[in-house]
Structures are given as C-alpha cells and as structure tokens.
Amino acid sequence: MQTGNHEMILVIDFGGQYNQLIARRVRECGVYCEIVPYTYTLEQIKAKNPKGIIFTGGPNSVYGDDTPKIDPGVFELGVPVLGICYGHQLMTHTLGGRVESADVREYGKTAVKLNKNNILFKDIEEHNISWMSHTDYVSEVPEGFVVTADTSECPVAGMANDLRKLYGVQFHPEVEHTPFGRKMISNFLFDVCGVKGDWTMSSFAQRKIAEIKEAVGDKKVLCALSGGVDSSVAAVLVHKAVGKQLTCVFVDHGLLRKDEGDQVETVFKEQFDMNLIRVNAAERFLGRLAGVSDPESIDIAWTRGTGAPKGPFQIFDTVGLNTAYNIVHQYQSVPGLFSPLLKKMMMPYNFKKMEAILKKYIDEGKLGMSTGEGFYKYN
C-alpha cells in the first residue's frame, strides 16, 4: 500500500507481547507499517496492498479451540510473510506441517545455529544467540519448506520457502536479547519484500497533522495529558494542527518525579503556548496509597483512587512482563521529539530498580498471564 507515497508492511497481531516492538523495528528501518488484528479479513488485507506481512507471537496453542487463526488465502497473495513464534507455528499448522508440545519449555537466551545461505540470515554469523519463549514447537515443516535454524531443544527454529517468500522463526528477532534480530528484519524488508526504506517519522507527523486539521475543522478538542510519551505526542500533533482550539487537562497525582509536574506545565503552557488546565490531585492519590507496599494492595488503591479498571501490576501481567521490561529498557533511547526540555521529560524515569525487579521475575519464567504467573498467579 502506498501511504502518503510510502510502501507499507502489515503487522498482523495474534495477541503477542511484542507487537509494538515489531512495528518499531520496521519503522527504524525507514519503512512504514501498521498493526492490525488477526480478525482482519482477507479482503481487508488485500485492500491494504502491503509489500510484506509479519505475523506476531501470541500466548495460544495453534491446536486450541478458540485459538487465533488466519485465512489460508493470505499465503496465496504473492506477498512475503514472516511468522514469529506463534506466527511461525500458525504458518506451519495452516500449510500442513506439524506442531507439537515440547517436554521442556524453551525460555530465555538460547544458542541457535543459522543457515547463512538463506536470504533471511544474510551477513549474519552462523552460531548466534536468540531469545526464545515457547512451549509448542514445529516438529515437521510444511511441504516446500526447508529448515533454516535450529537449537538443542528446537529442531525447527527457522524455516523458509524461498519460492513463495514465506518464512518463519521460533525466536523473537524484535527484542534486544536477539542481537542479530535487527539485521534479520532488515533482510526481510529489503531483500525479500524489496521495499525502499524512504519513510520517516517527520513525514508521518506532517500527514497526521493535516488529517487532524481536516477532521476537527472549527470544533474544540479536549486532551487528557499525563506528561508521558503517548499523550504528549498526541497533544503536540493536535496543537500543531488546530492551535488554541485544543485544551489539555493535566492531572498531577503526586507520583511524578520531583518538579516534573511543573515541567509539564512549563513545556506545554509556556513553550508550546497551549491551553492547559492543571488539576492538583496529589492528596487524593497519595492518601489512597498510604501504607501500601504489595502489588495487590497497590492495585486496589490505584483503581479506587483513579477509577482505572486495572492497577499497574495487573497491567504488567496483562501485557506481559517482557513487554514492560523492554519498554523500561527502550525508554533509555527514546529521542526527544520537539525540544530538549520535552526530550528530558519523555526520557526514562530512571526506573533501574523497576527494571531489576522485572528481570528477576522474567528470569524465573514469570511473564504474567501468558505463563500462568507474574505478579499474580492465574489458574
């Protein structure tokens, strides 16, 4: 699909923890991409006219009754497909291969042997390290596929049908723990899909600003501003589009870093000249959290104090501790988007202790709901 005259990669989400990270890796290569749910119909996929498709991982087994599926017709579109983890297994199952449940769950950094002759692993060392997180595995590849990677516990850590441009990997190339992952994704994008890599975030921002301006017209806009990355970027884009038609409401709950509430007010009210309403609610929030220390109590206090459906630790378990860990880790390299002061605000909260806690749980195999235990236990 040409999106603002840019080619597009479609990321089909099967409930994986790393869907946004996959999209980020694609965009880092200068390629536009969109994330869509697995419920997208074949006609909707065709309408997007993607240059390539990536299947994400997911917590399910391909043999489950209500497990996410994909229309087999997607493999007949002539569009390159890369399946990751569950996506790799789903491709296998759909095309007639065999997926089984392993006696030993493969999790963490794992030595992997790659077939350097395959285009997906071009210019990558044969003996490498990958990040694994799976119980099911591919035991037999579909007809027309060859094995391109393996580990001591996983006989098909990678497979390929070069003629049909269909590829699968059991490991996660999108995470930092797979050091060759960026290169592998780049190989898929440029050597398999044949994209040009001419997309930039600035061009995307300009297009969105124009779309927002057209959608809003002469109406007023209200934005809930937390001071974090998502709401800050949204506020700036809308402000660039409609100016004083936007009013931002910032609730200072008292849990920010020292003086950070003042920084938020300074940046958006003075530097960007936005209409900003600051609500000082620290007493209400902190009163609910007084004397609280364990995850369950914190979540209860949080939901009662804010009205949110879930507390922070419940959210961690839902999205997966790996995702939370990668977000905290990746924040270290998030660039400022519009100014040094905004960069300072949107850079990491220096959550080194949080990162250490998350890593401890991850090393113990407690990834959240997907593994049956995280900060909570699940049946």
Summarize the structure in words.
By secondary structure, the chain is an alpha/beta fold. It has three domains: 8-192, 3-Layer(aba) Sandwich (Rossmann fold), CATH 3.40.50; 201-280, 3-Layer(aba) Sandwich (Rossmann fold), CATH 3.40.50; 303-379, Orthogonal Bundle (N-(1-d-carboxylethyl)-l-norvaline Dehydrogenase, domain 2), CATH 1.10.1040. The protein is built from 13 helices and twelve strands. It has helices at 19-28, 42-48, 86-94, 181-192, 201-216, 229-242, 260-271, 282-289, 295-306, 312-319, 321-330, 340-346, 352-363, and strands at residues 8-13, 32-37, 52-55, 81-84, 98-114, 127-140, 146-150, 158-161, 166-169, 221-225, 246-252, 275-280. Helix 5 packs across helix 6, helix 10 crosses helix 11 (321-330) and helix 11 (321-330) runs antiparallel to helix 13. It is globular, with a radius of gyration of 22 Å. The chain starts with 7 loop residues before the first strand and ends in a 16-residue tail after the last helix. The model is unreliable at 334-338 (pLDDT under 50).
